[in-house]
Amino acid sequence: MQSRILYSKARPFRMLLAGYLFFILAGTILLSLPIATKAEVPASLMDIFFTTVSAVTTSGLVVLDTPEYFSVFGQMVILVLIQICGLGYMVFVSFIILAIGRKITMGNTMLLKENVASPTYGDAFHFMKIAVIFTLIFEAVAAVVFFFAFRTVYPGIEAGYHAVFQAVSAFCTAGFTSLPGSFMGFADNKGLLFFAALVSICGGIGFFVLYDMY
After folding, report:
1. pLDDT at residue number 172
2. Cα–Cα separations (whole angstroms), residue 55 to 31, 77, 181
3. Domain extent at residue 190
4. What are the backbone dihedrals phi and psi of residue 121, each rounded to the nearest 5 degrees, phi first?
5. In the chain, which residues have pLDDT < 50?
């Protein structure tokens, strides 16, 4: 009986781990595709794997120059990994399931509860909805601010793309950038640098801490 209880308690953690391993595997495969790179000579599998793990864990460690090596497709794969895993993949998946009108299974509910460290299932759903909405709104505002700064250097669509990428990466404190040279080209724009730092600080503190403070 005791072993069954321990197994039931450990199962959500194993499933969470399996989920993150799935995203690492999927990301490694996608970033290994020829369409994911602009380079004539592909990077080693270890470099691709390292990049994927860095995106999934939002560690910000890179061995490849993101805007130089990866194509738009490759950068979008990285961005999606940052967004999903930075937010918490079960939070993101559960929100999508609810958004399309489906019901969340008990197994997914258990994973969501563990993912948001919530004491009850009801609180888990409450925090999940608020966390996703808060994150998307915060990133949207950040993207707008970045857009007005970037459009002085890049044309409209490209400025918008860089703005979205930087907003997500900054809020998830991922350290990745789509900008050649990162923010070095905007070193004289102190207001932009301060705002980018503020976005990263808020993202680093995390939604749940900010929620408790409020």
Report:
1. 87
2. 11, 9, 19
3. 2-213
4. -70, -40
5. 1-10, 90, 97-101, 116-121
> What per-residue confidence (pLDDT) applies to 6?
40
Question: Can you name the residues that pair with 122 across neighbouring β-strands?
Answer: none
Q: Cα separation of 164 and 68, whole Å? A: 18
Residue 49 pairs in a beta bridge with none
Contact between residue 51 and residue 63 where contact means Cβ atoms under 8 Å apart: yes
* Long-range contacts of the stretch 41-48 (C-beta < 8 A, 24+): 43/69
CA dihedral 89, 57, 134, 180 (to 10 degrees): -130
Residues with Cβ within 8 Å of residue 95, at least 6 apart in sequence: 128, 129, 132
Pick from 80, 51, 194, 38: which is nearest to 183 by CA? 194
Per-residue pLDDT, 94? 52
Count: domains in the chain: 1
pLDDT of residue 60: 83
Query: What does pTM read for this prediction?
Result: 0.78
In residues, how long is the chain? 214
Predicted confidence at residue 2, as pLDDT, reads 45
Question: What token pair was written down for 118?
Answer: 């919530």
Phi and psi at residue 162, to the nearest 5°: -65, -35
Q: What is the pLDDT of residue 1?
A: 47
